[in-house]
Amino acid sequence: MPHTPHPPASRPRVRARRRLRAAALLASAVSVCLVAASAPPTPLGVGDRLFPHLGNPGYDVAAYDLSFTYSGSNSEPLRAVTTIDARTTADLERINLDFAHGKVDSVEVDGEPAGFAAADEDLVVTPGSPLGEGEWTRITVRHTSDPVSSNGREGGWVRTADGLAMANQADVAHLVFPCNDHPSDKASFTFRVTAPEGLTAVANGLPTGVDRTGGSTTWTYRTAHPMATELAQVSIGRSTVLHRTGPHGLPVRDVVPTEHRAALEPWLAKTPGQIAWMEEKVGRYPFDTYGLLMADATTGFQLETQTLSLFERELFTDHVYPKWYVESIMVHELAHQWFGNSVGPATWSDLWLNEGHATWYEALYAEETADEPVEARMKAAYGASDGWRAKGGPPAAPKPPTSGSKTGIFRENVYDGAALVLYALRQEIGRPAFERLERTWVARHRDGTATTADFVRLASETAGRDLGDFLHGWLYGEETPPMPGHPDWKPITAERAPKAAAGKPQ
After folding, report:
1. Which is it for strands 164-167 and 206-213: parallel, antiparallel or unpaired?
2. What's the Rg (C-alpha) of the chain?
3. pTM > 0.85
4. Distance between CA 143 and CA 82 in Å, rounded?
5. 3-state SS of 421-473?
6. Mean per-residue pLDDT for 91-118?
């Protein structure tokens, strides 16, 4: 959906207008208000098919301002202040925020104290007077942010050997800060991170200030482009920030554990060339900086946090995988900056648009730089596709995650299974039309969100014919359709199916 513009500066006038409205309605609505106020707080959601209680209706966030104060110990809660600027899309007597793992000390709405209560994984805020549709509001929550997981719920803060990083995908940003935790509601972000002397903090976007006072330092970062909550990143640790220049003078900054700097530098030096390679495929890099965060932690995945992709340090230093494979995973997370970050999924069922494209460019890069043929990988994926669909659902209609495994939607069907859809489409419409489609897709939906239906519509427009029936089988069919140009390709049993090489939890 289009990004909501920033709120106007004249906030007191908004509040005064709200008070006049509330006074005018008071006589006729008092009994309704009393009933609503007495009703217990209830968790809400935007009705996502895979995460029905994620996100909240009634408002659109324009901006987050997040302040974290780190004590120096990654086993202690951080002190935090979250400020949310939002515009209401309905009349609201209560505001639901997603927040589940911290202590709330106070809440203000437009500078005035507000009531609050927990309801499952929601923080339900009751302002002093109702909010009218179309009004700007500012919500300030003073809280703690706990890096220690509870009840086996992983995600949010990741504890590293020397500090913290974030991994909020798919639904755990609200374990870190109060938010509207759904990818359909993008917003701008400001981060203010205070840490003791000797530590370095880095976040999404570009630095706007460093303030050193009394043995601690506060770093401020701001994003110039809207971002989903699942893509937020903050790194705190004994880190070195390395700088280099990418295409068109793009600032590239990497964050590495200081003791591993020398070993990691040869890998990091590859990033500008990889950005140039992606630009040749799909157009200009969509943000104003990029870089890799090498976390000294074992996570089991890599993650495309916006402008600062998260990687396990040991992926590069333990020499378990071939060099070409590691480089292709670097390109996988880089490709996400276009597919998944700049063009975000409107719902989590649209995840294949993220992971399928990232896997596609990962495979294409391996073919062009390491002689690892895309066709061979796609033939193997075709053989496994029926098994993947049975296990996880078709690419555009993945099965819900199993209980207690929210990352369970990251199955093979949305990685190589979804890349197989793109290969079939290229086979069907030809390489030139497919490449035009890819460029148009990221340009048309830049800084927004898009659906599977949007992709099918644009593919048809680009090809000059209706591709709805063709793509429906590939995206939603229980069985994999015949591959154009390869009538000899046949399914194989699920037991022989290869695993996707994508770097996310399976």
Report:
1. unpaired
2. 23
3. yes
4. 8
5. HHHHHHHHHCHHHHHHHHHHHHHHCCCEEECHHHHHHHHHHHHCCCCHHHHHH
6. 97
